[in-house]
Structures are given as structure tokens and as C-alpha cells.
Amino acid sequence: MTVPAIHDPRPPFARSLDQTEYQIAAMRPGEPRKSTPCADYDVRALLGHVVAVLHKTPASVPESARATSQP
């Protein structure tokens, strides 16, 4: 019986944050008010949602599973 490999989710998560940072830096004035595929969110509201989720992310990881250094 083989045990499935446990993959560290931090590297792909870090890459997605890098891509998000790139997209935010590329925004032009006026774009935060543009619509998104989510009817309830314009770009500004969606970014606020992402930031709120990022603030909650460490709290969802048990203390024993938290990394002591960057991936």
C-alpha cells in the first residue's frame, strides 16, 4: 500500500501571490471600479476580499504546521 505524497502548498501559494501583486501593480487609474465576473464585486471590492482572506489565512493553519521560515 502506498501513501500519497504530502505536497507543500506554500510554493504554489507564493507564486499565486506574486501573480496577484503583478496584476495589482499593472492597474491603471479607474480600473478599480471596473466590473468582475462576480456580480457582487468590482475590482476594488474583490481586492478587499482577497486582502481579508489573506489576513485570515495564518489563523486557519494550526500552530504546529506553521513554517518558521520562508518556503
What does this structure look like?
- With 71 residues, the protein is mainly alpha-helical.
- 42% of the residues lie in helices and 0% in strands.
- The two termini are 30 Å apart.
- The mean pLDDT is 82.
Q: Quick recap of the structure?
A:
With 71 residues, the chain is mostly helical. The chain has helices spanning 10-25, 43-56. It is elongated and about 55 Å long.
Rg over alpha carbons: 16 Å
User: Based on CA inertia axes, which overall geometry fits?
Assistant: elongated
Broad structural category = mainly alpha
| Relative strand content | under 5%
What integer is the average pLDDT? 82
Q: Describe the largest sheet.
A: none
Number of helices: 2
| Oligomeric form | single chain
Annotation, overall tally of beta strands: 0
Order of helices and strands: HH
Helix content: 40-55%
**N-C termini distance:** 30 Å
Segments where pLDDT lies below 50 for 5+ residues?
none
